[in-house]
Design brief:
Shape: flat
Largest sheet: none
Structural class: mainly alpha
Order of helices and strands: HHHHHHHHHHHHHHHHHH
Strand content: under 5%
Radius of gyration: 25 Å
Length: 317
Protein backbone atom coordinates (compact mmCIF):
# COMPACT_ATOMS: atom_id res chain seq x y z
CA UNK A 1 0.00 0.00 0.00
CA UNK A 2 1.49 3.34 -1.05
CA UNK A 3 1.98 5.96 1.67
CA UNK A 4 2.55 8.86 -0.74
CA UNK A 5 -0.02 11.65 -0.80
CA UNK A 6 -1.82 12.43 -4.00
CA UNK A 7 -1.28 15.86 -5.64
CA UNK A 8 -4.90 16.77 -4.84
CA UNK A 9 -4.46 16.01 -1.13
CA UNK A 10 -1.22 18.00 -1.05
CA UNK A 11 -2.97 20.94 -2.67
CA UNK A 12 -5.82 20.81 -0.15
CA UNK A 13 -3.40 20.66 2.78
CA UNK A 14 -1.41 23.58 1.39
CA UNK A 15 -4.58 25.62 0.91
CA UNK A 16 -5.74 24.79 4.42
CA UNK A 17 -2.37 25.85 5.86
CA UNK A 18 -2.42 29.15 3.96
CA UNK A 19 -5.95 29.88 5.15
CA UNK A 20 -4.95 29.08 8.72
CA UNK A 21 -1.93 31.41 8.52
CA UNK A 22 -4.04 34.17 6.98
CA UNK A 23 -6.73 33.85 9.66
CA UNK A 24 -4.21 33.85 12.54
CA UNK A 25 -1.34 35.90 11.12
CA UNK A 26 -0.81 37.76 14.39
CA UNK A 27 0.10 34.52 16.18
CA UNK A 28 2.45 33.43 13.40
CA UNK A 29 4.03 36.89 13.44
CA UNK A 30 5.21 36.17 17.00
CA UNK A 31 7.39 33.38 15.55
CA UNK A 32 9.50 35.87 13.59
CA UNK A 33 11.67 36.99 16.54
CA UNK A 34 12.63 33.48 17.79
CA UNK A 35 13.08 32.33 14.19
CA UNK A 36 15.48 35.19 13.43
CA UNK A 37 17.29 34.48 16.70
CA UNK A 38 17.76 30.81 15.77
CA UNK A 39 18.98 31.66 12.27
CA UNK A 40 21.53 34.21 13.51
CA UNK A 41 22.80 32.50 16.65
CA UNK A 42 22.13 28.77 16.07
CA UNK A 43 22.16 27.94 12.35
CA UNK A 44 24.35 30.76 11.05
CA UNK A 45 27.42 29.86 13.14
CA UNK A 46 27.27 26.27 11.86
CA UNK A 47 29.09 27.44 8.76
CA UNK A 48 32.09 28.20 10.93
CA UNK A 49 32.51 24.50 11.69
CA UNK A 50 34.60 24.16 8.54
CA UNK A 51 37.57 25.61 10.44
CA UNK A 52 37.66 22.32 12.38
CA UNK A 53 38.94 20.79 9.13
CA UNK A 54 41.35 23.65 8.37
CA UNK A 55 44.46 25.32 9.75
CA UNK A 56 42.80 28.63 10.42
CA UNK A 57 44.78 31.71 9.51
CA UNK A 58 43.60 35.23 10.36
CA UNK A 59 45.21 36.73 7.28
CA UNK A 60 43.67 34.23 4.86
CA UNK A 61 40.25 34.08 6.50
CA UNK A 62 37.94 31.14 7.09
CA UNK A 63 37.37 30.17 3.46
CA UNK A 64 40.92 30.54 2.16
CA UNK A 65 42.69 28.84 5.07
CA UNK A 66 44.30 25.52 4.03
CA UNK A 67 42.43 22.26 4.55
CA UNK A 68 44.00 19.74 6.94
CA UNK A 69 41.24 17.12 7.03
CA UNK A 70 40.89 15.31 10.35
CA UNK A 71 44.28 16.44 11.67
CA UNK A 72 42.75 18.57 14.44
CA UNK A 73 40.59 15.66 15.58
CA UNK A 74 43.59 13.33 15.63
CA UNK A 75 45.50 15.89 17.68
CA UNK A 76 42.75 15.85 20.28
CA UNK A 77 42.43 12.06 20.35
CA UNK A 78 46.20 11.64 20.69
CA UNK A 79 46.54 14.41 23.27
CA UNK A 80 47.34 13.51 26.90
CA UNK A 81 44.36 15.71 27.84
CA UNK A 82 41.86 13.60 25.88
CA UNK A 83 41.40 10.85 28.46
CA UNK A 84 41.34 13.33 31.34
CA UNK A 85 38.74 15.76 29.95
CA UNK A 86 36.55 12.98 28.55
CA UNK A 87 36.60 11.08 31.86
CA UNK A 88 35.84 14.22 33.86
CA UNK A 89 33.04 15.23 31.48
CA UNK A 90 31.37 11.82 31.58
CA UNK A 91 31.79 11.57 35.37
CA UNK A 92 30.15 14.94 36.02
CA UNK A 93 27.47 14.41 33.36
CA UNK A 94 26.39 10.93 34.48
CA UNK A 95 26.58 11.88 38.16
CA UNK A 96 24.43 14.96 37.47
CA UNK A 97 21.93 12.97 35.41
CA UNK A 98 21.51 10.22 37.99
CA UNK A 99 21.08 12.66 40.87
CA UNK A 100 19.40 15.76 39.43
CA UNK A 101 16.90 14.08 37.09
CA UNK A 102 14.78 12.12 39.62
CA UNK A 103 14.81 14.81 42.34
CA UNK A 104 12.30 17.18 40.64
CA UNK A 105 9.97 14.24 39.95
CA UNK A 106 10.09 13.02 43.56
CA UNK A 107 9.72 16.58 44.85
CA UNK A 108 6.67 17.23 42.64
CA UNK A 109 5.01 13.95 43.64
CA UNK A 110 5.55 14.57 47.37
CA UNK A 111 4.38 18.17 47.21
CA UNK A 112 1.36 17.27 45.10
CA UNK A 113 0.37 14.68 47.72
CA UNK A 114 0.35 17.21 50.58
CA UNK A 115 -3.15 17.44 52.08
CA UNK A 116 -2.83 21.19 52.80
CA UNK A 117 -2.55 22.99 49.47
CA UNK A 118 -1.70 26.33 51.11
CA UNK A 119 1.71 25.03 52.16
CA UNK A 120 2.28 23.76 48.62
CA UNK A 121 2.34 27.27 47.15
CA UNK A 122 4.73 28.54 49.84
CA UNK A 123 7.14 25.62 49.38
CA UNK A 124 7.02 25.98 45.60
CA UNK A 125 7.89 29.68 45.79
CA UNK A 126 10.74 29.12 48.25
CA UNK A 127 12.29 26.33 46.17
CA UNK A 128 12.05 28.33 42.91
CA UNK A 129 14.16 31.21 44.28
CA UNK A 130 17.64 29.56 44.14
CA UNK A 131 17.29 29.01 40.39
CA UNK A 132 17.34 32.77 39.77
CA UNK A 133 20.66 33.24 41.57
CA UNK A 134 23.37 33.99 39.01
CA UNK A 135 26.17 31.48 38.52
CA UNK A 136 28.80 33.90 39.83
CA UNK A 137 26.81 34.55 43.02
CA UNK A 138 26.08 30.85 43.38
CA UNK A 139 29.76 29.91 43.25
CA UNK A 140 30.54 32.71 45.68
CA UNK A 141 27.96 31.29 48.10
CA UNK A 142 29.50 27.83 47.77
CA UNK A 143 32.95 29.19 48.62
CA UNK A 144 31.60 31.18 51.56
CA UNK A 145 29.53 28.36 53.05
CA UNK A 146 32.24 25.71 52.61
CA UNK A 147 35.14 27.87 53.78
CA UNK A 148 36.96 25.88 56.44
CA UNK A 149 38.04 28.97 58.39
CA UNK A 150 35.06 31.32 58.59
CA UNK A 151 32.29 29.62 56.63
CA UNK A 152 29.23 27.80 57.92
CA UNK A 153 30.94 24.45 57.38
CA UNK A 154 34.01 25.53 59.37
CA UNK A 155 31.95 27.01 62.20
CA UNK A 156 29.80 23.88 62.61
CA UNK A 157 32.81 21.56 62.40
CA UNK A 158 34.64 23.54 65.07
CA UNK A 159 31.52 23.64 67.26
CA UNK A 160 31.07 19.88 67.34
CA UNK A 161 34.60 18.48 66.76
CA UNK A 162 36.64 21.22 68.49
CA UNK A 163 39.44 20.86 65.94
CA UNK A 164 40.39 22.72 62.76
CA UNK A 165 38.30 21.24 59.88
CA UNK A 166 39.89 19.99 56.66
CA UNK A 167 39.63 22.21 53.59
CA UNK A 168 37.16 20.24 51.45
CA UNK A 169 37.49 22.75 48.60
CA UNK A 170 41.17 21.84 48.29
CA UNK A 171 40.44 18.13 47.72
CA UNK A 172 40.02 17.47 44.01
CA UNK A 173 37.80 14.41 44.44
CA UNK A 174 35.23 16.55 46.28
CA UNK A 175 34.67 18.74 43.22
CA UNK A 176 32.07 16.50 41.60
CA UNK A 177 30.05 16.18 44.80
CA UNK A 178 30.00 19.93 45.44
CA UNK A 179 29.13 20.60 41.80
CA UNK A 180 26.25 18.13 41.62
CA UNK A 181 24.61 18.65 45.01
CA UNK A 182 24.73 22.42 44.75
CA UNK A 183 22.94 21.99 41.40
CA UNK A 184 20.29 19.87 43.14
CA UNK A 185 19.66 22.66 45.65
CA UNK A 186 19.56 25.33 42.96
CA UNK A 187 17.56 23.62 40.24
CA UNK A 188 15.14 21.12 41.81
CA UNK A 189 12.34 23.61 42.47
CA UNK A 190 12.42 25.16 39.01
CA UNK A 191 12.78 21.82 37.20
CA UNK A 192 9.71 20.48 39.03
CA UNK A 193 7.41 23.06 37.39
CA UNK A 194 6.78 20.92 34.33
CA UNK A 195 5.89 17.93 36.51
CA UNK A 196 3.50 20.03 38.57
CA UNK A 197 1.82 21.02 35.30
CA UNK A 198 1.58 17.37 34.25
CA UNK A 199 0.12 16.37 37.63
CA UNK A 200 -2.43 19.19 37.43
CA UNK A 201 -3.77 17.62 34.22
CA UNK A 202 -4.35 14.18 35.77
CA UNK A 203 -8.02 13.22 35.41
CA UNK A 204 -9.64 13.62 38.88
CA UNK A 205 -11.96 10.70 38.13
CA UNK A 206 -8.95 8.38 38.24
CA UNK A 207 -8.26 9.41 41.85
CA UNK A 208 -11.96 9.13 42.70
CA UNK A 209 -12.11 5.62 41.28
CA UNK A 210 -8.97 4.68 43.20
CA UNK A 211 -10.48 6.02 46.44
CA UNK A 212 -13.64 3.99 45.85
CA UNK A 213 -11.46 0.90 45.42
CA UNK A 214 -9.79 1.66 48.77
CA UNK A 215 -6.41 2.82 47.44
CA UNK A 216 -4.13 4.60 49.90
CA UNK A 217 -2.46 7.92 49.04
CA UNK A 218 0.81 6.14 48.26
CA UNK A 219 -0.99 3.69 45.97
CA UNK A 220 -2.65 6.58 44.14
CA UNK A 221 0.77 8.16 43.61
CA UNK A 222 2.18 4.84 42.44
CA UNK A 223 -0.63 3.79 40.09
CA UNK A 224 -2.20 7.10 39.03
CA UNK A 225 0.26 9.99 39.32
CA UNK A 226 3.45 8.30 38.15
CA UNK A 227 1.94 6.69 34.98
CA UNK A 228 0.33 10.06 34.16
CA UNK A 229 3.63 11.96 34.18
CA UNK A 230 5.69 9.16 32.62
CA UNK A 231 5.45 10.56 29.03
CA UNK A 232 6.62 13.97 30.28
CA UNK A 233 9.46 12.37 32.22
CA UNK A 234 10.46 10.39 29.12
CA UNK A 235 10.75 13.54 27.00
CA UNK A 236 12.75 15.32 29.71
CA UNK A 237 15.06 12.31 30.02
CA UNK A 238 15.66 12.26 26.26
CA UNK A 239 16.57 15.96 26.32
CA UNK A 240 18.82 15.43 29.35
CA UNK A 241 20.65 12.56 27.66
CA UNK A 242 20.94 14.62 24.47
CA UNK A 243 22.83 17.27 26.43
CA UNK A 244 24.80 14.82 28.52
CA UNK A 245 28.19 16.13 27.43
CA UNK A 246 27.26 19.78 28.06
CA UNK A 247 28.59 20.27 31.57
CA UNK A 248 27.77 23.77 32.87
CA UNK A 249 30.71 25.79 31.57
CA UNK A 250 30.46 28.91 33.76
CA UNK A 251 30.01 27.08 37.04
CA UNK A 252 32.78 24.59 36.30
CA UNK A 253 35.24 27.29 35.25
CA UNK A 254 34.51 29.45 38.31
CA UNK A 255 34.90 26.51 40.70
CA UNK A 256 38.22 25.44 39.22
CA UNK A 257 41.49 26.01 41.04
CA UNK A 258 45.00 24.62 40.89
CA UNK A 259 44.14 21.92 43.44
CA UNK A 260 41.11 20.42 41.66
CA UNK A 261 42.02 21.08 38.01
CA UNK A 262 42.73 17.39 37.33
CA UNK A 263 39.15 16.55 38.34
CA UNK A 264 37.34 19.64 37.03
CA UNK A 265 38.80 20.12 33.56
CA UNK A 266 35.96 19.18 31.17
CA UNK A 267 35.55 19.51 27.42
CA UNK A 268 33.79 22.90 27.55
CA UNK A 269 36.44 24.53 29.76
CA UNK A 270 39.23 22.94 27.71
CA UNK A 271 37.74 24.34 24.50
CA UNK A 272 37.63 27.81 26.06
CA UNK A 273 41.24 27.63 27.24
CA UNK A 274 42.55 26.30 23.93
CA UNK A 275 40.56 28.70 21.77
CA UNK A 276 40.53 31.92 23.78
CA UNK A 277 42.39 31.84 27.09
CA UNK A 278 45.75 30.53 25.87
CA UNK A 279 48.36 32.65 24.13
CA UNK A 280 48.15 30.52 20.97
CA UNK A 281 44.37 30.83 20.36
CA UNK A 282 44.10 27.69 18.25
CA UNK A 283 40.58 28.18 16.87
CA UNK A 284 40.73 25.17 14.55
CA UNK A 285 41.70 22.82 17.36
CA UNK A 286 39.02 24.16 19.71
CA UNK A 287 36.39 23.97 16.94
CA UNK A 288 37.30 20.31 16.35
CA UNK A 289 36.92 19.53 20.07
CA UNK A 290 33.57 21.35 20.23
CA UNK A 291 32.34 19.53 17.12
CA UNK A 292 33.34 16.18 18.62
CA UNK A 293 31.34 17.06 21.73
CA UNK A 294 28.27 18.03 19.67
CA UNK A 295 28.39 14.86 17.56
CA UNK A 296 28.49 12.70 20.70
CA UNK A 297 25.49 14.61 22.08
CA UNK A 298 23.58 14.08 18.83
CA UNK A 299 24.29 10.34 18.85
CA UNK A 300 23.16 10.08 22.48
CA UNK A 301 19.98 12.01 21.65
CA UNK A 302 19.10 9.65 18.80
CA UNK A 303 19.80 6.57 20.95
CA UNK A 304 17.75 7.92 23.87
CA UNK A 305 14.83 8.80 21.60
CA UNK A 306 14.93 5.35 19.97
CA UNK A 307 15.02 3.64 23.36
CA UNK A 308 12.14 5.74 24.70
CA UNK A 309 9.95 4.94 21.69
CA UNK A 310 10.73 1.26 22.05
CA UNK A 311 9.91 1.20 25.76
CA UNK A 312 6.82 3.42 26.07
CA UNK A 313 6.08 4.69 22.56
CA UNK A 314 6.89 8.36 23.26
CA UNK A 315 9.72 10.39 21.77
CA UNK A 316 10.58 13.84 20.47
CA UNK A 317 10.88 12.75 16.81
Amino acid sequence: MSTQMSPELKARLHKSLMMNIKARWQIYLLLVVPLVYLIIFAYGPMGGLIIAFKKYNFALGMLKSPWVGFTNFRRFFESYKFTQVLTNTLTLSLYSLVVTFPFPIIFALILNALPVKGYQKVIQTVTYIPYFISTVVMVGLIFQVLNYRNGLYGALFMQFAHIMPPDILAVGTNFKHIYVWSAVWQGTGYASIIYFAALANVDPTLHEAALVDGATRFQRVLYVDIPSILPTASIMLILAVGGLMNVAFEKTLLMQNSLNINFSEVISTYVYKVGLASGINDFSFSAAIGMFNSVINFILLVIANWGSKKLNGSGIF
